[in-house]
Amino acid sequence: MDRPPAADAGEIPATVSPSMGRRRFLAGSASLIALSSTSLLLGHERALEASESDPMRVPGSPARAYGERSRYESASRAADDSHSLTPLQDLHGIVTPSSLHFERHHNGVPAIDPSRHRLMIHGLVGRPLIFTVDDLQRFPSVSRLAFIECSGNSRMGWQDAQDHTVQELHGLTSTSEWTGVKLATLLDAAGLQPDGAWLLAEGGDAAALTRSVPLTADVLSDAMVCYGQNGEALRPEQGYPLRLLLPGFEGNINIKWLRRLKVGRAPFMTRWETSRYTDLMPDGTAYQFSLVMEAKSVITSPSGRQQIRPGVQEIRGLAWSGRGRVVGVEVTVDGGRTWRTAALQEPVLSKCHTRFCLPWTWNGQETVLQSRCVDQTGYRQPSREALIKARGIHSSYHYNGIQSWKVEPDGRVRNLHM
Amino acid sequence: MDRPPAADAGEIPATVSPSMGRRRFLAGSASLIALSSTSLLLGHERALEASESDPMRVPGSPARAYGERSRYESASRAADDSHSLTPLQDLHGIVTPSSLHFERHHNGVPAIDPSRHRLMIHGLVGRPLIFTVDDLQRFPSVSRLAFIECSGNSRMGWQDAQDHTVQELHGLTSTSEWTGVKLATLLDAAGLQPDGAWLLAEGGDAAALTRSVPLTADVLSDAMVCYGQNGEALRPEQGYPLRLLLPGFEGNINIKWLRRLKVGRAPFMTRWETSRYTDLMPDGTAYQFSLVMEAKSVITSPSGRQQIRPGVQEIRGLAWSGRGRVVGVEVTVDGGRTWRTAALQEPVLSKCHTRFCLPWTWNGQETVLQSRCVDQTGYRQPSREALIKARGIHSSYHYNGIQSWKVEPDGRVRNLHM
What we know:
Largest sheet of chain A: 5 strands, mixed
Structural class of chain A: mainly beta
Distance between the termini of chain A: 63 Å
Shape of chain A: globular
Number of helices of chain A: 6
Largest interface: A-B, 142 and 141 residues
Radius of gyration of chain A: 25 Å
Oligomer: homodimer
């Protein structure tokens, strides 16, 4: 085989000998080993395991047409029939792998043959049109990174605190790079009439989910009909072959398996926006068309049901706003007495997850961790108390209160409502 | 079933009746259909296929723990034992799906158990250290989008033109969001000595690939030891569980399956940088340590072996530079007589693929398409002629000449050297 001589005599022991000098470089990193130069050179201190299982002694696998993750990796969406949750505690950066993007569907994921799929635009337009997927891909294209968050994300915040993970509490939000055609381009092609003020969007699944979309300047500037996600075609559970993307709006209005857009003068009052997806207010009225997902942040590490050790660690989390960019995230490590400014990881993009982090040394005593963010409009993520004061506790949607994680003296991290 | 009544009576025919008014909205979009309002309302003109195969009439699939692409999608890396190529002609935006990131390995992809993997830092450091993957994940983390390009990408540009696709010619480049620890942080922890000027990086595969890395200010500012790719763990073929990331440098020095970093005073002159990965110059000397990938751009659509139709289309492509941001891309649709400025898709990031596009109406006559880019240093991508004048034709690496696509009168697109 084509194995070169080693460049010098140094080799890493496959398992570390207990006789090697152990040193805690970072408290909490029990396995981090400091070596004396001498011990490196002493062959008899090496615990080489030159077995067939040593990946340096056997040729590896050939290249593959379509790659898969390592069999040692197991991060997964907690899934039932109708939804699955992104494992925020296991993920890095801001891009959600498409295989781990949360799902929410109302009658399963349809198996759609893209060559048979059509999108119709009709109603108050000069020229009703039907598009194939190929047609849409010939139009001027646009790509952007954007989060999609289910309006029901974090809904357990309205209830009594239970001992859940960040995935279970907040895993109905994900970020992808979406590619498609601007909605405005397609409405131009169809000849949007001046009195067209709302759009009915209909999905081609067995639930035929329908929502009314206001044709505001923001929507006309941002909305897209998407066929791409993270470089390749949309995933089936994200609307393959076409979905409506309304950056910043609640997930369900980003209609998946999009088959129809009808322009009208007023909202269409579909059952999905009368019997569902409204917010029950303290006075018993229902707030309708609460479409924008307001600013939210959550610490993903340390987070619920994790176990930490005393010493230096990095607090990491995500912040986002349906109104634009996140401009600041503050973190408290003492239950809100003092707040420190977290670093925001570049790029910081509008209506997109933003990664924040802050170094922290845990002294081993009970405490509470929280994060709060401010978006470009100046809106500040509210405390749970302030949110409930304004909204009551009977809504199922749009919970964006500050998340509290209690750290027990034994290092266990637990969901807390305060 | 939970199927709501349709919001109104409009339905999209599953197949389009030939009696419907056909209209070419965009020339080249033969299947794009314009409907009269009347025809929409006439039930007998609908070709409804209300069969069991209609995805609106059968419940879909349940949610899944780890998603897969649609069975109708087939974009793939052209793969052999030692490498595979990203299908640039099939992709959108700037993020390359991890499953389609190009591969290059020298003795296969090793199957590494991350719990047994170690990274050793030694040599001219005050305190040699061995890290587990868990240790590294506790250090302050950093994420960035960056391209990695094989130094041999586009190497067929040095030879006579063959009728290849853009994937075959230029598919050894991909972009991911990478997450890890800054190399500088780890060298600080180990106590980099003042005379440490080069680093030996060694991979834990059966080729034990080794390269020498200069510890310049740029490298210390940019380099990372990565464990994350596009949100999840590195893929096996990208170095799982650890790889060195040197943004802007040729692919092979971004050592995969990283197991060892040794600090020295001078380059280590490994076989990989003496017998390979040097550039043979016209005078017979070999240029060594040509590490930076200079600015390049390529039109991905229309591109080699595609077929286009007369009318409006969008020219799309990618541009990148190992020296920083791309600041401009120009496109010619007349073989270089005139050049137009392409639009750059946001975000435009340093040492990262940048998507460009330009609308174009093809009149059906033979022509040549080209793109050229300029990076933030002012460097302009050279013509093939200028590149060969400076470098000769005996190198295998670092080809970044302008790509020419000839459009034949029948719409076929062909690789051309001019």
